[in-house]
Design brief:
Layout lengths: L7 H21 L3 H12 L4 H6 L7 H40 L18 H15 L3 E2 L5 E3 H4 L19 E2 L7 E3 L5 H10 L8 E10 L10 E11 L4 H15 L6 E8 L2 E10 L16 E10 L1 H6 L8 E8 H9 L6 H4 L2 H6 L8
Parallel strand pairs: 1-5
Antiparallel strand pairs: 2-4, 3-4, 5-6, 6-10, 7-8, 8-9, 9-10
Bound molecules: 3,4-dihydroxyphenylalanine.
Length: 364
């Protein structure tokens, strides 16, 4: 036994008397904080128990056994005593607090935060439902599209400005195919026409194609990604009157029964004749205001009769069929319906904005 070696009996005695002292202190503790301090004092890393047990390092295996056993017993004893007392005091403290606390009924209650579809999605859904009621069926096309479908077959000539790097996102790919992020939903017309060209009884085609489109554009009224709905009806007789009747129905359902629709002559490569579609201003009812720049009208869509070149490029005989089409931007409709002046608000995901522009119940 070395000179430093502990006398195990003494150490065990010390441990026992420390336990007795600690128990007394725990018993007379007045608060849970005080008990916590006692825990640190006795059981902490630098506490009294550890200090006494540090002796173990120099003890013989036999002493170590004895001291270790007593040490463990003391530790367990202390731990249970301390947690019991702590619980007891905490309960008392809570009861006292509840007795003395006044209930502040002016505090806001806890409510569940329900999620709901994004305003653009809600508007999209509403628009789609109106078109379904008009007897059109939804069709979906890919967002990464052949340049050929996005432009060529829609009668865009090779040098057309829309095909410019400045306006279109081109997609590099290993096959070196000419792919773009579609700049409009019109290529879905091409896909449907190509698909049905060889079928025996394809008419009438009555479809709409909702979805995301992409352009190199970013300001208060343009976003690099936005949503459009394309409409296409092909039959033996479809003409401008039928197109106008459908758009009248759509905008009256979407805005209000008093909404007027007018066509202005315009140009699109894939329609002839082509029209810009205006509605009477929803802010001033057509009287003239700041939003409609005193004109009483707001531009909301493009439309026209399917160009013979488009029919030809998709395997149809333009002499045998007729068709009309339209395309509109959903964010534009959402801005008008929800009275949002800056398109970018839709993409910033501010909760206050999303809540304020929400159309209805959370389940929508
Ligand atoms: N694709 C056109 C655009 O994005 C919108 C459009 C205009 C679609 C006339 C049509 C249409 O189907 O007939 O600007």
């Amino acid at each position: 036994m070395s000179s430093k070696a502990p006398d195990s009996d003494n150490v065990c005695k010390d441990l026992e008397s420390m336990l007795a002292l600690a128990k007394e202190k725990i018993h007379s503790a007045k608060s849970s904080d005080e008990v916590e301090q006692l825990r640190v004092e006795f059981l902490g890393k630098k506490g009294k128990v550890s200090a006494l047990l540090s002796i173990l390092r120099d003890a013989t295996p036999e002493d170590r056994k004895k001291i270790g056993a007593t040490g463990n017993k003391v530790k367990i004893n202390l731990e249970t005593g301390i947690s019991r007392k702590k619980l007891e005091l905490e309960k008392d403290e809570l009861n006292k607090k509840l007795e003395n606390d006044e209930l502040d009924s002016s505090l806001p209650g806890l409510t569940n935060a329900f999620g709901r579809p994004h305003p653009v999605r809600q508007i999209m859904r509403e628009a789609c439902q109106i078109l379904e009621r008009a007897g059109l069926k939804s069709v979906y096309g890919p967002e990464v599209e052949y340049e050929d479908y996005c432009f060529d077959r829609l009668n865009f000539k090779p040098g057309h400005a829309a095909r410019d790097m400045q306006a279109t996102f081109f997609v590099k790919n290993a096959q070196a195919e000419s792919l773009v992020l579609r700049t409009h939903t019109s290529p879905v017309q091409v896909r449907v026409l190509l698909d049905l060209a060889k079928k025996e009884f394809p008419l009438p085609i009555r479809m709409f194609a909702p979805g995301r489109v992409y352009r190199v554009d970013d300001d208060a009224t343009h976003s690099p990604m936005f949503h459009q709905i394309e409409g296409l009806v092909v039959d033996k007789t479809s003409g401008m009157g039928d197109l106008k009747a459908h758009l009248d129905y759509f905008f009256r359902q979407f805005f209000s029964q008093s909404t007027k629709v007018r066509f202005r002559p315009s140009y699109f490569p894939f329609t002839e004749p082509s029209a810009e579609v205006d509605i009477s201003c929803v802010f001033c009812d057509g009287k003239g205001c700041r939003v409609c720049k005193s004109s009483g009208w707001l531009e909301v869509a493009g439309a026209g009769l399917v160009h013979p070149e488009v029919f030809k490029a998709c395997g149809w005989d333009p002499e045998a069929v007729g068709g009309w089409a339209f395309g509109m931007g959903i964010e534009r409709l959402a801005m008008l319906k929800l009275r949002v002046p800056d398109l970018r608000s839709f993409f910033e995901n501010r909760l206050s904005f999303l809540r304020a522009t929400s159309l209805g119940s959370p389940s929508r």
